[in-house]
């Protein structure tokens, strides 16, 4: 079944992508939730025209995302957490990374940050998706909180 995505769907595609999925997934989940609609011949023509008109606006958005990516690479992020030796009491997730970025002056939604759950002190990296074409790796360090 061919569908046109109305919004980004994780592990499937981005808005306005034409994707092929199994009938049940499309008919029972994507279409009723409003994530996609059928990719008929007329819908494909409308999509092509919309993409053509949006192309020059997209270039500015990509340029802004690349500028933000350069600013993120320059940041040194340190996250203080309670620890007993090398092991943390709790864990560091993308929520904590988003808060640290906000303290550094870069507001990034936590949905776009991909990092594993970290439970030890050390240096790690997180992947941040600023645009479908711009993904940046940001290094961060977890340090023990001083009592």
Q: Output mean pLDDT.
A: 91
What separation lies between the terminal Cα atoms?
Answer: 58 Å
Helix content: 25-40%
Number of helices: 3
Question: What structural category do the secondary elements indicate?
Answer: alpha+beta
Largest sheet entry:
4 strands, mixed
Q: What order do the helices and strands follow?
A: EEHEHEEEHEEEE
Quaternary structure type: single chain
Unreliable residue runs: none
What percentage of the residues does DSSP assign to strands (E)?
Answer: 25-35%
How many β strands by DSSP? 10
Q: Using the CA coordinates, give the radius of gyration.
A: 20 Å
What overall form do the CA principal axes indicate?
Answer: elongated
Strand order, largest beta sheet: 4-10-9-7
Description:
The longest helix has 34 residues, at 41-74. This protein has helices spanning 23-33, 41-74, 94-103, and strands at residues 2-5, 18-20, 36-38, 77-81, 83-84, 87-92, 113-114, 118-120, 122-131, 134-144. The radius of gyration is 20 Å and the shape is elongated. The N and C termini lie far apart (58 Å). The strands form 3 sheets. A 4-stranded mixed β-sheet has the order 4-10-9-7. The chain is 37% helix and 33% strand. A hairpin with a 2-residue loop joins strand 5 and strand 6. It is an alpha+beta fold and 147 residues long.
Helix-strand blueprint:
Elements: E1 2-5, E2 18-20, H1 23-33, E3 36-38, H2 41-74, E4 77-81, E5 83-84, E6 87-92, H3 94-103, E7 113-114, E8 118-120, E9 122-131, E10 134-144
Parallel strand pairs: 4-10
Antiparallel strand pairs: 1-2, 1-3, 5-6, 6-8, 7-9, 9-10
